[in-house]
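Possible regression after last week's pipeline update?

I re-ran a chain I had predicted before the update to compare outputs. Posting the input and the new output here so someone can diff against the archived version. Not blocking, just want to make sure nothing changed silently.
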Amino acid sequence: MSRWFALLIVLALLSASGIAQDAPPTPPAALSIFRGDPARTGANEEADGLREAPRLAWSFPVRRPVRSTPAIAGDLAYIGDEDGRLYAIDITNGERVWERDTNAPIVSTPAISEGVLYVGGLDQFV
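New output (post-update):
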């Protein structure tokens, strides 16, 4: 009986230390978050660098400052401002597609995963 007890202790220690745990799952390909991946590496394996000097394509007026980076999925960019407004903007022309009032300042970058948009405000709700 003491061998089984010792084996259970060893398995519990391995599990608690993370050695016996599975590797974290690979994020889905359709994941759009700050700096591109959960590790925030900023790496984009599909990009081959700038082809020409950057230029301003369009600008978008907001009521209060934007303190985060946009999340982009397809042809839409999602940004939130300190007034609590969440905007979906067409990246091809800078036009507002829709706007929602969250009733709380948005200072974090929205995230998109599997077709769902997540945004947190200073009211501590997502």
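Follow-up from reviewer: compared with the archived run. The first strand starts at residue 31 and ends at 32. Marking as no regression found.
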